[in-house]
């Protein structure tokens, strides 16, 4: 179904107020400096517009005139191509493929653990915290290898990773003993003015922005 008249002349994002995949898209938009209309959504009670536009009623959902996109990976790749400056993917195919695989691993392995902590039972949350701590510990060498995640420049992979790192404290996940590289990585991202612009009021309250 086509977008409603009020959305046809603007880029519109349907987003929840505290979700790592929605935050991922908002961070890409902020990095690109793109103006858009934000419609906040309660995923348990999606608005009629979203029900009409997206058969899964899911967020994030991006609308641009008659184009409707959903799934954060699809939305962020589109935004990087639609608004090419600054580019958020490397030029060479090998590096692009490596980052795409990393983002897929984040979606399949990390994001479910975040959601289990946020919405699961106490037992599910504790199991998810253990698993997320293990994932962080195993990833320490990756944070040490480059200034950004698997890449010398900020990329779409950082837009996927940074929202998780931002939430660690609120999720009750301490950094590993040798996790200074993760802390330094997060601060590099969080000090960027675009990161602050990407935050909803609810996300801003999760922790302090670094000086």
From TrEMBL:
Entry-linked SUPFAM superfamilies: GST C-terminal domain-like (SSF47616), Thioredoxin-like (SSF52833)
Pfam families (UniProt xref): GST_C (PF00043), GST_N_2 (PF13409)
GO CC entries: cytoplasm
Domain GST C-terminal: 92-209
PROSITE patterns: GST_CTER, GST_NTER
Gene3D superfamilies recorded: 1.20.1050.10, Glutaredoxin (3.40.30.10)
Sequence ranges assigned to domain GST N-terminal in this UniProt record: 9-87
InterPro entries linked: Glutathione-S-Trfase_C-like (IPR010987), Glutathione-S-Trfase_C_sf (IPR036282), Glutathione_S-Trfase (IPR040079), Glutathione_S-Trfase_N (IPR004045), GST_C (IPR004046), GST_Omega/HSP26 (IPR050983), SspA_C (IPR034342), SspA_N (IPR034341)
Assigned protein family: Belongs to the GST superfamily. HSP26 family.
Name listed for the protein in its UniProt record: Stringent starvation protein A
Organism: Luteimonas granuli
The organism's taxonomic lineage, starting at the top: Bacteria, Pseudomonadati, Pseudomonadota, Gammaproteobacteria, Lysobacterales
């Amino acid at each position: 179904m086509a977008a409603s008249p009020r959305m046809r002349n603007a880029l519109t994002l349907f987003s929840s107020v505290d979700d790592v995949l929605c935050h991922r898209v908002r961070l890409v938009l902020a990095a690109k400096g793109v103006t858009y209309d934000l419609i906040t959504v309660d995923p348990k009670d999606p608005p009629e517009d979203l029900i009409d536009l997206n058969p899964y009623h899911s967020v994030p959902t991006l609308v641009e005139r008659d184009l409707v996109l959903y799934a954060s990976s699809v939305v962020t790749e589109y935004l990087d191509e639609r608004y090419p400056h600054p580019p958020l993917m490397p030029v060479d195919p090998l590096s692009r493929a490596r980052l795409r695989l990393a983002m897929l691993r984040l979606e399949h392995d990390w994001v479910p653990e975040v959601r289990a902590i946020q919405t699961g039972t106490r037992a599910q949350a504790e199991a998810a915290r253990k698993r997320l701590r293990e994932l962080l510990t195993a990833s320490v060498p990756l944070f040490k290898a480059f200034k950004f995640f698997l890449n010398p420049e900020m990329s779409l992979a950082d837009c996927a990773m940074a929202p998780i790192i931002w939430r660690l404290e609120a999720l009750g996940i301490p950094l590993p003993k040798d996790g200074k590289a993760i802390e330094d990585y997060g601060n590099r991202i969080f000090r960027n003015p675009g990161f602050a612009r990407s935050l909803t009021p609810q996300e801003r309250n999760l922790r302090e922005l670094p000086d």
